[in-house]
Amino acid sequence: MKKYRIRSKFRFTIFMVMVILVLFMSVTTVIGRNNASSESFNQYEPVKVVAGDTVWDIASANIPAGMDVRKAVYDICDINGISADELQAGQTILVPVYE
Fold it and tell me: pLDDT per residue over 44-76, tens digit each?
């Protein structure tokens, strides 16, 4: 039986770490634990704009308690591809449903 000898402990340690990382990544890929999570909205509520409405008013009426209205205003403008001053009466915009 042939005996193997470790010549460089540093290279052996690096090799073992790489093997463990590859095995870990392979296992997590197979079982689906490596999914990236981002803040995305799956549901939108259409809101018809009436005279005098602002994006701020619409956002503050459709957010949960404790959420920053500025973030909701940004999300609404981003989703609809508008800026806050482009809102017009009669326009229908999509508002994300926050959970």
Answer: 999 999 999 999 999 999 888 888 999 999 999
